[in-house]
């Protein structure tokens, strides 16, 4: 990071872009006060124009900051900055995880051995069980929201953000959110109904299926067609996709 890097809140130095998605971009950052690396997630400008969303986003980020678990990416701080165009851009300061998302792991390695897939999913579920006991549902479990550190530890990120998006967001925002997550939607989410902890469990099962088969249980030409399959159809058994899956592993999935 250079001396010319942006500074947020007089404290967080914004560095290189690590990645971006339909909702935000993530930068490597530096907490100058505590002298530690962080990750800074900055929301899209069109989302930032919605004052109600900003309030929900701040509330959900604060709730997520209360989760202290080794398999959950810690949220350190939240804030806002004024963009050159005048909008207030919310940001989240998070634990910096040196590793890859499960999405990147799948792209590089393809399907995983059943035992490894089950071990990673068990760690992911431990994070979800902890958050559920504290009354927080993730709502957007997918390979892109699960990190794997260089030491092989699982870290689940983005707790609460999906709820902020879903609670009264614009139609365009809701459509963008569904496009990225339709392959992991629970049937009740696909129907637009209220969700609870079981929706996260269903999504975790979809992730396990993909880890074992290299593709999610349902695919289609559009988010709507995939969502329809979650509601109306049963997925094929993983053993049909991977001969390495043992019967016990298949039943677990």
In short:
ATP binds at residue 41. The protein is α+β, with helices and mostly antiparallel strands and 253 residues long. The chain has helices at 45-48, 51-65, 102-109, 114-133, 161-166, 171-181, 187-190, 197-213, 223-232, 247-252, and strands at 7-8, 12-20, 24-31, 36-43, 75-82, 88-95, 99-101, 146-149, 154-156.
Give the structural class: alpha+beta
The CATH architecture term of the largest domain is Orthogonal Bundle
The geometry reads as globular
Helix content: 25-40%
* Whole-number tally of structural domains: 2
Average pLDDT over all residues: 83
Under the CATH scheme, which class of the largest domain?
Answer: Mainly Alpha
Task: Supply the CATH superfamily name of the largest domain.
Answer: Transferase(Phosphotransferase) domain 1
- The stretches of 5 or more residues where confidence is low (pLDDT under 50) are 168-180
Rg result: 18 Å
Distance between the termini: 43 Å
Strand percentage, roughly?
15-25%
Order of adjacent strands in the largest pleated sheet: 1-2-3-4-6-5
Which fold name is given in CATH as the topology of the largest domain? Transferase(Phosphotransferase), domain 1
Order of helices and strands: EEEEHHEEEHHEEHHHHHH
Give me the number of helical elements.
10
Taking the sheet with the most strands, its summary is:
6 strands, antiparallel
Q: Count the strands?
A: 9
Please describe the topology of this protein:
Layout: E1 7-8, E2 12-20, E3 24-31, E4 36-43, H1 45-48, H2 51-65, E5 75-82, E6 88-95, E7 99-101, H3 102-109, H4 114-133, E8 146-149, E9 154-156, H5 161-166, H6 171-181, H7 187-190, H8 197-213, H9 223-232, H10 247-252
Antiparallel strand pairs: 1-2, 2-3, 3-4, 4-6, 5-6, 7-8, 8-9
Helix pairs in contact: 4-8
InterPro entries: Kinase-like_dom_sf, Prot_kinase_dom, Protein_kinase_ATP_BS, Ser/Thr_kinase_AS
Biased composition (Basic residues): 243-253
Region (Disordered): 231-253
């Amino acid at each position: 990071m250079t001396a010319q890097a942006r500074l947020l809140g007089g404290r967080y130095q914004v560095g290189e872009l690590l990645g971006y998605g339909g909702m935000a971009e993530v930068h490597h950052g530096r907490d100058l006060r505590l002298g530690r690396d962080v990750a800074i997630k900055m929301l899209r400008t069109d989302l930032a124009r919605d004052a109600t969303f900003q309030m929900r986003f701040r509330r959900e980020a604060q709730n997520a900051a209360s989760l202290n678990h080794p398999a959950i990416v810690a949220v350190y701080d939240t804030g806002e900055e004024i963009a050159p165009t005048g909008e207030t851009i919310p940001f989240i300061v998070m634990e910096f995880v040196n590793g890859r998302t499960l999405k990147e792991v799948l792209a590089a390695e393809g399907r995983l051995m059943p035992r490894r897939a089950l071990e990673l999913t068990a760690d992911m579920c431990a994070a979800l069980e902890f958050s559920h006991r504290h009354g927080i549902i993730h709502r957007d479990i997918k390979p892109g929201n699960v990190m794997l550190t260089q030491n092989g530890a699982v870290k689940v990120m983005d707790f609460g953000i999906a709820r902020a998006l879903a609670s009264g967001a614009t139609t365009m925002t809701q459509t963008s959110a569904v496009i990225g997550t339709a392959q992991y939607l629970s049937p009740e989410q696909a129907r637009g109904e209220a969700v609870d902890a079981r929706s996260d469990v269903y999504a975790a099962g979809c992730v396990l299926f993909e880890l074992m088969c290299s593709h999610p249980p349902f695919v289609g030409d559009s988010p709507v067609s995939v969502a329809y399959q979650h509601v109306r159809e049963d997925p094929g058994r993983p053993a049909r996709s991977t001969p390495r899956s043992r019967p016990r592993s298949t039943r677990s999935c």
